[in-house]
Amino acid sequence: MRKEGIRRIVVRGPNWLGDAVMCEPALSQVRTLFPQADITLLVKPGIADLLAQHPAVNRTLVYDDRGRHAGLVGKWTLAGVLRRHRFDLAILFQNAFEAALISFLAGIPRRFGYATDGRTLLLTDPVTVPPRTAQRHQVEYYWDLLKPLGGHGPAPAPRLFVTPDESALIAGRLADAGIGPSDLVIGVNPGSTYGHAKRWLPDRYAQVVNRVVEDVQGRSGARVGVAILGAKGEEPLGKTIADQIKTRTVVCSGQTTVRELMALVKRCQLFLTNDTGPMHVAAAFQVPLVAVFGPTDWQTTSPFGVDAKLVRQPVSCAPCLLRECPIDHRCMTGVTVEQVYVAALHHVPLVAPPPAVEPAPLPSLSSTSLAGVTVFLDRDGTLNVDTGYVKSPDDFTVLPGVGAALARLKQAGARLVVVTNQSGLGRGYFTSKDLEAIHGKLRLILAEDGVTLDGLYFCPHHPDDRCNCRKPARGMIDRALAELQVDLSRAYVVGDSVRDVELAKQVGAQSLLVMTGPSGAEALADLTARDLPPDYVAEAMSQAVDWIIAHATHRPAAGLPS
User: Fold this and answer.
1) Phi then psi for 221, rounded to 5 degrees?
2) From residue 438, how far is each of 139, 161, 389 by CA, in Å?
3) What is the per-residue burial (b if ≥16 Cβ within 10 Å, else e) of 130-160?
4) Rounded distance, CA 305 to CA 25, Å?
5) Pairwise CA distance, residues 510 & 494, whole Å
6) Inter-axis angle of helices 498-507 and 520-529, to 10 degrees?
């Protein structure tokens, strides 16, 4: 497969919450393997919410299999929607025959997925399923699917992202229940939508929580609150446990959206759970957790990449993977309060007061204040430390405060586009795979502050090639004009070098010189001597963002020229 010819990709994600979390590293690697492609995620509504802020995805299409896409007519309708997008490649992490059939009906020329469920003839690129004896974790199962496309290395831990607004909303709801921002929060997830067989006994959860609360308060005197999570229909289960807990408790079962559940799980300092989707959400946020396993296979679906304590009772009939136990549920009844309590104590010394609630966006800016504004960003010296040539992700370090500053622009509705000269490719200092991995790391680091890039363009040529894309030539800007419909009258170029200011003046955008690169003072002196001063000089990205917001909204900003 000539990857440079792949411009539009649709990724069919898994259907279940936990599976979607375990698929996240592979989804991120799709972006790394195809850094210039437009990536669309096709998933069911709940998974669309789960991955709504994911930096690897340009857009999401919702597969409404219970509504407009139900039945054969609905599948044909969905295939028509995909056909109009003219995708070059479908990557099918969802294993069902249906996923291959819809991509086939949509006329997608390359259809890539595991050869499962009798769908081999519908795939142009079927991938052999790993043998059961391999005992591959589900994270690795999804990760390995991409190896024929150039995927390599060990699978990283899953990661999820919530916005400051979502964190602030959950902080408010907990405060309404008497749980303050400095209180420790223990999350309890006692249910399971898959079936009752995965549920540990509710009264035992309550006993463990009471003992852990007593222990934490005895050690540190900290105030402790408890949040009980669950799906719709599990409210009585949550209330049963809450009635037995001897501290402030809020029952959130059936009362949260997927996004709210994520923010609530992230707020916890300890998470007690069955083997369910929220368990994987907690692992993705690196929340210390204790997971009780019964009928499911702990070797393939345990929390991945986190210091989780698993508690299980080895019995001959497990893992059976049944929704309901046909006998005496011995895999769960055999798990004692003492076992789970001891596992929880492993985390108690690590439990610390939560960080301050992330601030909401500035109240003076609405989500559309900067609608139509595009900010072009240089990379080395502007977003990250300029080391000469960044040759691998290990050498890549984002400058302090950059993520938080760019988050303010995104929250106000601006588009962010990186334009960067990368002559190290032409010089042979690093490979295209190295550059893809570096940009993958950049996207993931920015995503921690809720920032997604709307575009990322790079010039790979040697300076002697005299190409039309190496800054200050305008080739990368012209690509953005064609692909993103940029209004240059509302555009800004932020960089640390002479060529960034020259580029801005050439295309008619506002120019900002940041002094975070190694030659900022020299660049400013050169520009001043040539009577090409930038429109604004900023000591750091945060100051540059202040000026852009003030200029774009025609408002004076403190200490800045209006």
Assistant:
1) 70, 10
2) 22, 19, 12
3) eeeeeebbbbbbbbbbbeebebeeebeebbb
4) 11
5) 9
6) 50
Cα 501 from Cα 560, distance rounded (Å): 19
Classify domain 164-350 at the CATH superfamily level. Answer: Glycogen Phosphorylase B; (3.40.50.2000)
CB of 390 within 8 A of CB of 384?
A: yes
Q: pLDDT by residue (tens digit) across 263-319?
A: 999 999 999 999 999 999 999 999 999 999 988 888 889 999 888 999 988 888 878
CA–chain centroid gap for 210, Å, is 34
The domain ranges of the chain are: 3-149, 164-350, 374-552
CA 508 to chain centroid: 35
Q: Cis omega before residue 353 (within 30°)?
A: no
The domain covering 3-149 belongs, at the CATH homologous superfamily level, to Glycogen Phosphorylase B; (3.40.50.2000)
Query: How many residues in the chain?
Result: 562
pLDDT in tens, 72-109: 999 999 999 999 999 999 999 999 999 999 999 999 99
pLDDT at 268: 94
Out of 88, 378, 386, 496, the active site residue is 378
Q: Which residues of 329-359 are buried (b: 16+ CB within 10 A; e: fewer)?
A: bebbeebebebbbebbeebbeebeebeebbe
- Can you list the positions of beta strands (E) in 354-467? 374-377, 415-421, 455-459
Beta bridge partners of 536: 512
Those residues whose C-beta lies under 8 Å from the C-beta of residue 490, and which sit 6 or more positions away, are 372, 373, 374, 552
**213 vs 175: CA distance, rounded Å:** 19
Please say if 64 is a catalytic residue.
no
Distances (CA, A) of 345 to 8, 349, 351: 49, 7, 10
- Which of 88, 275, 380, 496 is the catalytic position? 380
Tell me whether the CATH fold assigned to 164-350 matches the one assigned to 374-552: yes
**At a CB cut-off of 8 Å and minimum separation 6, what does 523 contact?**
496, 497, 498, 501, 513, 517
Compute and round to an integer the Cα radius of gyration of the chain.
26
Question: How many CB atoms are located within 10 Å of the residue 548 CB?
Answer: 25
How many whole angstroms separate alpha carbon 141 and alpha carbon 135? 9
380 is catalytic: yes
Q: What is the pLDDT of residues 422-452, one digit of tens each?
A: 999 999 999 988 898 899 889 889 988 888 8
Q: Tokens at residue 384, please? A: 């990250």
Torsion angle (degrees, nearest 10) of CA 402, 498, 421, 542:
10
Tokens 């622009």 correspond to 409
Two structure tokens written together for 262: 């994520």
Quick one: fold of 374-552?
Rossmann fold (3.40.50)
